[in-house]
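Data deposition worksheet. Section B asks for the primary sequence of the deposited chain exactly as it was used as input, without tags or linkers unless they were present during the calculation. Section C holds the resulting structure in token form. Section D is free text for depositor observations; keep each observation to a single sentence. Incomplete worksheets are returned to the depositor.
Section A, Depositor: J.P.
Section B:
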Amino acid sequence: MNNLKPQPAATSFKQYLISLATWLLLAIPIGVLVGSASAFFLTALNWVTDYRENHLWIIALLPLGGLIIGLTYHYYGESVVKGNNLLLEELHTPKQIIPLRMAPLVLFGTLITHLFGGSAGREGTAVQMGGAIADRFTKWFMLRDIDRKVIIIMGISAGFASVFGTPLAGAIFAVEVMLLGSVRYKALLPSLAVAYIADYACMFWNVGHTHYSIPSAPALQPDTLLYTILCGILFGLAALLFSKTVHFFSTQFKKYITYPPLRPVVGGVVITLLIWAMGTTKYIGLGVPTIVDSFSIQQPYYAFLIKLLLTTLTLGAGFKGGEVTPLFFVGATLGSALFLIIPLPMALLAGMGFVAVFSGATNTPIACTLMGIELFGTEAALYLGIACFVAYLFSGNKGIYASQISAGPKHFLLAKLKYKKSGGL
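Section C:
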């Protein structure tokens, strides 16, 4: 019973300081390890991308690459095949330490995907490596489940921050993504500390990040506000389409191809034929050059749809990588195309789409707004924030992460409707 008595304020404050110091000390090795792993990953990713673009014949071997990935995960990675969803599941209901093999397997699978011409991103790889590395500290220090959640959040934060060079967004993303409509503030300070350490660790290895620019943004007026809201709605619908399509392809591959290693083989054949029919490599890999061009060169209206289709097909078939950079591509090219009918600067439209589609697909509007500010500056902050939150509201309750749990409906009208249907309980 004595344990139920309130502790003196001085003792509680002392315990708080000890706990805080412990997390900050753990942030150092986690940040250094994850940031260094991201640096190696980004360097290797640049190498395989350059090799593919200089030896385009290798795209014909994409089905072979799919077979290699499929067999590798079938025999050695069955426990980690869920990827980011496994991290979210362990955050909600901790069961077992994330196997360290997740890191090398997702690294290998992503590099193979990009080498042979799959359309995928990189955040999933960095986040999974970060989670697997950080969770080692749970075993080494025999942490409790409640502390283990913080450790996994720190791993996600470090991976995201270091791969994109956006520590503030990475820190918020890690705590925001775990529960739709809620933020776990207890983990915020450790998440922020490890994000900056990981970012500095990555830069220490002279690994740079892509720079984008929004030269100017008009003053927010009633008409520009309406245009921004309209764009946000379109970006949210694009995010909804991306999420629905990737889940559709994943379901169909599992339904019709029972042997998992064959799924990326069949997917690889289809993707190779599509690339051959298009006669361009613009829509495969990360697509960073096209994203950069979207800020100054108007993109065709169909560009975002092609990237969306190729990426969802690649990931749905079982290839490895992430969704975020392709989401940047979808948003930036859609925003750039909207310049034809929306009287806002092209760079602003591309920047809004860049972060807003990402916001809608991951249900992380705060992190995406901060990412926009980190990447593009503060001048366009109002436009970016409005676009991100509107896209979030119009992207449906389920995003790209199937294991993300909702804290409730996104809109108060939906919450009210749900309340009435439940009989006011």
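Section D:
DSSP finds 18 helices and two strands in the chain.
The two ends are 34 Å apart (CA to CA).
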